[in-house]
């Protein structure tokens, strides 16, 4: 009964606008960017079952992401 109540009271996911991080401070098409650029597509990630930003970022080359104890907890992000 309590788990049903938690599902009922859960908020709908918040949709955020697409964010582009670039190294030159000028917009550059992905095809012209340096080879070390990776594109993270939220639609593809959600279709493959990824549900957290930590799991999405952890799949990028040179990125180590960890969560302390599951969804909604403190996470750490390390870049190589």
Explained architecture:
The structure is a single chain. This protein has 80 residues and is an alpha+beta fold. The protein has a domain at 39-80. It contains three helices and two strands, in the order αααββ. It has helices at residues 2-9, 42-47, 53-58, and strands at 63-67, 75-79. The chain has a two-stranded antiparallel ribbon. It is globular and about 45 Å long. The termini are far apart. The model has no long low-confidence stretch (mean pLDDT 75).
Q: Could you provide a short overview of the structure?
A:
With 80 residues, this protein is an alpha+beta fold.
Offer a few descriptive terms.
80 residues; alpha+beta; two-stranded antiparallel sheet; globular
Number of strands: 2
Secondary-structure element sequence?
A: HHHEE
Overall shape: it is: globular
Taking pLDDT < 50 over at least 5 consecutive residues as the criterion, the unreliable ranges are: none
Strand order of the largest sheet: 1-2
Share in helix = 25-40%
> What's the mean pLDDT score?
75
**What is the terminal-to-terminal distance?**
45 Å
Largest sheet: 2 strands, antiparallel
Count, helices: 3
Strand content: 5-15%
**What structural class do helix, strand and pairing data support?**
alpha+beta
Rg, Cα atoms, Å? 16 Å
